[in-house]
Specification:
Layout (H helix, E strand, L loop, with lengths): L10 H8 L3 E6 L2 H7 L14 H6 L2 E9 L6 H21 L4 E3 L3 H9 L3 E8 L8 H9 L2 E5 L23 H13 L2 E3 L5 H10 L5 E2 L16 H9 L3 E4 L3 H4 L1 H9 L1 H15 L3 H17 L9 H14 L4 E3 L19 H9 L4 H30 L1
Parallel strand pairs: 1-2, 2-4, 3-4, 4-5, 5-6, 7-8, 8-9
Helix pairs in contact: 1-15, 2-4, 6-7, 7-16, 12-13
Bound molecules: zinc ion (ZN).
The site of zinc ion has 3 residues, from loops.
Length: 389
């Protein structure tokens, strides 16, 4: 596979990047499969993810989100999740020369050895479980590797960071969900949950947990981001923070500008809705386009991709390079300039080397840490199943 030249990236960085297993733990491309009849095999000029651009960016594994709005609950939410899982699996079958479905760390390594990109799935929002552990088990058997406990809304068993708390963290059933996930070998994802739910998870989970797509609150004060204390607590339990690239989570300046113009924020949402109706894939991509137009008009600040590296560096400084990775939120959020799509990922490797990170630390951040986390979660599941059988 020829690697396109990116002149601003050093040869050493390019070489390191393309011999590393690069893992992105969160992308929303699944919405495009559902709403747009999107084909992962073709190179597109919009959005961020397809096979050609993942190849150019050296992606070794990507977790595609299975997501529906928190307002959709009950059997309809389950139906939508199953529809999305089927759509992801269909793309893997259609493009079996390039893609392979994976659920374990070894699956990802095997995919790499075979020259394929590993496709994994994460359920974004426990509301799609319909309050039923049997549904959770079904998702696991269909290949879902992690569950983000909530999306933006508090569910019937877990509080979200962007909604009113009603369970003081996790309900009793919520705690059962965590233990069942541990037993099944599914990774618990604390992105989106409230600070109290985060604490509850750390107390209850027998396996390390991660934030699949969250950034650092110390640099950008969004409740969706993790405070330094939270990152340290996650690290102490063997977990990871996977840095989200969304401009509203990485740039304080952007966040404040948006917050200072509430009318503008509402207008962006309404305008995306007006252009797209109920097509969620369109709405996600259109918001990105609208924000870029507003940046061009000087109404919102321009955010550069280097902000992502600032967050990686911050998390690594407070918790160690063993505790941080990449969770882009591609195709689901507004991307900074210079990180428009997966093909731009080698820039991160180059920037980390320039900051003085060792090759081995860079490889851990790119994906090695995630492989280790997966193995740790798999080992806990094995020991729990061993105890009950
Ligand atoms: Zn999310």
């Amino acid at each position: 596979m020829p690697i396109p030249s990116q002149p601003e990236i050093s040869e050493i960085a390019r070489d390191l990047h393309f011999r590393s297993i690069v893992i992105d733990t969160h992308a929303d491309t699944t919405q495009r499969l559902i709403y747009d009849g999107f084909d992962l095999g073709e190179r597109h000029t919009d959005g961020s993810i397809d096979i050609p651009r993942m190849r150019e960016g050296g992606v070794g594994a990507i977790f595609l989100a299975i997501w529906t709005l928190g307002t959709v609950t009950g059997p309809e939410a389950v139906r939508r999740a199953l529809e999305q899982i089927a759509a992801v699996r269909r793309q893997v079958t259609l493009h079996s020369d390039d893609l392979v479905l994976a659920t374990t760390a070894d699956d990802i390594r095997r995919a790499r050895a075979a020259g394929r990109i590993a496709i994994l799935m994460g359920l974004e929002g426990g509301h799609m479980m319909n309050h039923d552990l049997a549904v959770l088990r079904q998702y696991a058997s269909l290949g879902v590797s992690y569950v983000t406990l909530t999306h933006t809304r508090t569910t019937d068993w877990a509080d979200a960071s962007t909604d009113k708390p009603v369970h003081n963290g996790l309900s009793e059933f919520g705690k059962q969900v965590i233990v069942e996930m541990n037993r099944l070998g599914m990774i618990v994802d604390v992105s989106h949950v409230s600070d109290k739910a985060f604490q509850d998870v750390l107390e209850v989970s027998r396996a390390p947990v991660f934030a699949s797509h969250s950034s650092c609150r110390a640099l950008c004060n969004a409740t969706r981001n993790l405070s330094d204390e939270m990152i340290k607590a996650l690290a102490a339990k063997g977990g990871l923070v996977q840095i989200n690239f969304h401009v509203g989570f990485i740039s304080r300046q952007f966040r404040e500008a948006e917050k200072g113009q509430l009318e503008l924020a509402t207008w962006i949402e309404d305008e995306a809705k007006r252009r797209c109706g109920e097509n969620m894939a369109c709405r996600l991509l259109e918001s990105d386009r609208i924000v870029r137009t507003l940046v061009g008009e000087g109404k919102l600040p321009r955010v550069e991709w280097t902000e992502i590296v600032r967050h990686i560096d911050h998390a690594a400084k407070i918790a160690g390079a063993d505790r941080v990775g990449l969770g882009s939120d591609f195709d689901g959020a507004e991307m900074p300039y210079g990180m428009e799509d997966a093909s731009r990922l080698p820039r991160i490797t180059d920037a980390l080397l320039r900051l003085g990170y060792s090759e081995s630390d860079v490889q851990k951040i790119l994906g090695g840490n995630m492989l280790r986390l997966m193995q740790d979660v798999e080992a806990v599941a094995e020991s729990m199943r061993g105890n009950t059988e």
